[in-house]
Specification:
By secondary structure, the protein is of the alpha+beta class. It has 5 domains: 3-96, Rossmann fold; 125-177, ATP-grasp fold, A domain (Dna Ligase, domain 1, 2-Layer Sandwich), CATH 3.30.1490; 183-425, 2-Layer Sandwich (D-amino Acid Aminotransferase, Chain A, domain 1); 430-532, no CATH class; 549-617, Beta Barrel (OB fold (Dihydrolipoamide Acetyltransferase, E2P)). It is built from 17 helices and 39 strands. The strands form 10 sheets. The chain has an 8-stranded antiparallel β-sheet with strand order 13-12-9-10-11-14-21-19, sandwiched between helices. Strands 3-2-1-4-5 form a 5-stranded parallel β-sheet, sandwiched between helices. A 5-stranded antiparallel β-sheet has the order 27-28-29-30-31, with helices on one face. Helix 4 (82-90) packs antiparallel against helix 5 and helix 12 runs antiparallel to helix 13. The longest helix is centred in the last third of the chain and has 21 residues, at 430-450. The N and C termini lie far apart (64 Å).
Length: 623
């Protein structure tokens, strides 16, 4: 292998490029128009534009044009596409992954369950209620419906089929027993072309939102040596049943009694592979590349041991306090410091644009330590000190999880975020927010004096008559002198203030607050961050949106329109569905009335704040 094309984007493309260069392998990136300035393009030796990361013909043409002799698919996109793996081999290129036959065998969840049952791997039965309707061809929560009893079955099957057909082009669904709040535990396997398959222990992936993982760790706090051996044996049996070559993951659900059941096989590298790398000391991408080159699994893989504990947090551009609504924009500052015990895998940098076209994950931040508590503390501190300016993120939710007692005690399962409200876990500290507003005001005044053309040494806001300096208003805060919203902060002392940094003592506690003015005023420090919207002293009058207007809460594409102009609607009735970053947001009627206007249609792309529809409330109604 001399030249490797990475058929992917973002942090996984950067990750693969890093290992390839370490091994002396030249790299080729592919990119779409929104990613023209993305970090993975700059990291590679060469880059070729393509129409889409799903454009298999374009990607193979890029490989031919650059002389690449191998393709790494990363995860997502074409990574589990058996036809792409087959076409790669037909073109005389090495596909860094399992055989097309293995991918196809696991591509159908129905067929995969039959194979696993025959191999002696425990599978979930389809007897009794509650049941889960699942799409055979997909995942990520698409084509999935919970059925509590027989009266709900027909409607759930029809809805799941329709969603699966729309999402995956295959409406086939199946039933299996629904376990209430199980743990989601997966096992890393690696196999070589000489018939050896081994496991590299388990990962706990139970904390999820919308059926997608946000916190993963290895090893699982719920798995002891006996259970680990059983899980590993089942995973190896699964791998051998399909002749697995490369790195893959066998996923299980674990009930409260310690019984586990097969869920699926991911025939690719997983997003959360870094936690396994940290506890084993292995580079799984290097293992993939060596195995793809025909090498047998080396001794360090065959004899791998668990050392320490690792926890990964997925940093997403989304608002955890608003049902995980995706966020887009420019990253005016993106700084997450790696260091001893902290690893950062990122696909963005300062100035990167977070678009609605792709997954909302900005980075994976991983904490490692001798104990689980060490890993959690290091990870939380890295997230708290991160500077992510320009988009709303789930950072506060992640920090809240990492300090929450049930998490710290290892009491996690797929119902964790049902029991622990994300909006509460991510809620900002109002006292800290007030201090941040004061710090922003002090930095603003210091900046104004620094820019003055005369008498620059006078303090900001100084005047030769006794009067308070004019107030500074941010959305939700008014700062006048050392008072915020009319209430004085306790024992305030300003040690130093510049336009970008404020050394401030409040209530006897002295801290450094960093201030960055961009689209908003960002303040970091004191164990948290704030994004403040500065309001003008003399606002211009603006025309209000028409009464009853329903505004787009996020940028995205209209994928469903469920009503028509003139329809009578009731409170909570779904009207239309937006999609951005693989997430769907249903727009519901805020009250009862008549839909007088519908301004969008399926396929229309909209920006935040665009009027989607206009609702005229009924007299005496609830809207």
């Amino acid at each position: 292998m001399r030249r490797l094309l990475i058929a992917n984007r973002g942090e996984i493309a950067v990750r693969v490029i890093r290992t390839a260069h370490h091994l002396g392998i030249a790299t080729v990136a592919v990119y779409t128009e929104p990613d023209a300035d993305a970090p993975h393009v700059a990291a590679a030796d060469e880059a070729v534009p393509v129409s889409s990361y799903l454009d298999s013909a374009g990607i193979l043409a890029a490989a031919r044009a650059t002389g690449a002799d191998a393709i790494h698919p990363g995860y997502g996109f074409l990574s589990e596409n058996a036809d792409f793996a087959r076409d790669t081999a037909t073109a005389g290129l090495t596909f860094v992954g399992p055989s097309p036959e293995a991918i196809a065998a696991m591509g159908s969840k129905i067929g995969a369950k039959k194979l696993m049952e025959a191999a002696g791997v425990p599978v979930l039965p389809a007897d009794g209620y509650p049941l889960l309707v699942k799409a055979s061809a997909g995942g990520g929560g698409r084509g999935m419906r919970l059925v509590q009893g027989p009266d709900d079955l027909d409607a759930a099957m029809a809805a799941a089929r329709a969603e699966a057909q729309a999402a995956f082009g295959d409406g086939t669904v199946f039933l299996e027993r629904y376990l209430v709040d199980p743990r989601h535990v997966e096992v890393q396997i690696v196999g070589d072309s000489h018939g050896t398959v081994v496991h590299l222990f388990e990962r706990e992936c139970s904390i999820q939102r919308r059926y997608q993982k946000i916190v993963e760790e290895a090893p699982s706090p719920a798995v002891d040596d006996e259970l680990r051996a059983a899980l590993g044996a089942a995973a190896v049996a699964a791998g051998k049943a399909i002749g697995y070559v490369g790195a893959g993951t066998v996923e299980f659900v674990l009930d409260g009694d310690g019984r586990f059941y097969f869920l699926e096989v991911n025939t690719r590298l997983q997003v959360e592979h870094p936690v396994t790398e940290l506890i084993t000391g292995l580079d799984l991408v290097e293992v993939q590349l060596r195995v793809a080159d025909g090498e047998p699994l080396p001794p360090e893989v065959l004899d791998a041991q668990i050392t320490g504990h690792a926890i990964e947090a997925r940093l997403y551009a989304e608002d955890a306090t608003a049902d995980f609504r995706p966020s887009t924009g420019t990253l005016h500052r993106f700084a997450i410091n790696a260091g001893p015990g902290v690893r950062v895998d990122a696909g963005y940098r300062d100035g990167s644009v977070v678009s609605p076209h792709y997954d909302a994950m900005l980075a994976k931040v991983i904490g490692y330590g001798r104990t689980r508590a060490d890993a959690a503390r290091r990870l939380a501190r890295a997230l708290v000190r991160a500077q992510v300016h320009g988009v709303t993120t789930n950072r506060d939710l992640l920090v809240g999880i990492l300090s929450e007692p049930d998490f710290l005690a290892g009491r996690t399962d797929t119902g964790y975020l049902t029991r622990h409200d994300p909006a509460t876990l991510a809620a900002p500290d109002p006292a800290l927010a007030a201090i941040h507003a004061l710090a922003a005001s002090l930095a603003r005044r210091a900046g104004n004096r620094a820019d003055a053309t005369v008498l620059r040494t006078l303090p900001a806001g100084w005047r030769n008559v006794r009067a308070a300096p004019p107030p500074v208003r941010y959305r939700g805060f008014e700062v006048a002198g050392e008072t915020v919203n009319g209430a004085p902060l306790d024992d305030v002392r300003v040690h130093r203030a510049t336009a970008t940094e404020v050394d401030l003592e409040v209530g006897g506690i002295r801290r450094i607050y960093r201030v960055h003015r961009a689209d908003r005023v960002y303040v970091d420090g004191g164990g948290g961050s704030s994004a403040l919207v500065e309001e003008p002293r003399f606002p211009e009058p603006v025309a209000a949106a028409q009464a009853g207007s329903l505004l787009a809460p996020m940028p995205g594409t209209v994928v469903e329109v469920l009503v028509a102009a003139g329809d009578r609607v009731h409170t909570g009735q779904p009207l239309l569905v937006l999609e951005a970053m693989k997430m769907r947001q249903t727009i519901a009627a805020p009250g009862t009335g008549t839909l007088t206007e519908l301004r969008v249609e399926v396929g229309r792309q909209v920006d935040t704040g665009v009027v989607l529809a206009v609702l005229e409330a009924s007299d005496g109604g609830d809207g």
